[in-house]
Task: structure prediction
Amino acid sequence: SQQGEEDPQALSIQEGENATMNCSYKTSINNLQWYRQNSGRGLVHLILIRSNEREKHSGRLRVTLDTSKKSSSLLITASRAADTASYFCASLNTNAGKSTFGDGTTLTVKP
Amino acid sequence: EAGVAQSPRYKIIEKRQSVAFWCNPISGHATLYWYQQILGQGPKLLIQFQNNGVVDDSQLPKDRFSAERLKGVDSTLKIQPAKLEDSAVYLCASSLGTAYNSPLHFGNGTRLTVT
Result:
């Protein structure tokens, strides 16, 4: 099974609302990254949070990391139609030295 | 800076045929990755290169898949012979350093359909 698992699988909201996506992982990690993928395109890096960090902000994005629960969340505030995409977390396994992606959350923002 | 370039963009082949994908990473990026992304799933790492050496190919089906990175720059991924379950998007990514400190930059992928 995937190292990272996102929840929910799909999320539909109105423009202006906040969107929260969660990611759980199984093993000890060095860092966790969030990526966005628009339909038919490659993944775009959004934010990286290290295992010794608890929260990180970038514009309208806020990421939290709880290593005791092996989970992370991505919050997009004041969502826009352009935020419609799939969002993936990738956890870097400390021992394996490689990042493993979850199956993503598909976000739809209705104008 | 120019992004990661991949070609072709789409490929349709019959099972048992062979196919090759090409990737040109961002200039100066030492690490190159090939991922397979099946519809509705996240990317799965096939192989990782550091310069022109293989770092991880544990999930590469070596009986049919092969990859090389010439002179530590461009890379090709080959499938021979293809199976129906190989239908997927093949993504190339590169990073300046390792996964410990460098985000991955992805190309737009090659969508492979095996009929």
Observations:
- The radius of gyration of chain A is 13 Å.
- Residues 15 and 80 of chain A are 5 Å apart (CA to CA).
- The mean pLDDT of chain A is 92.
- The first strand of chain A starts at residue 4 and ends at 7.
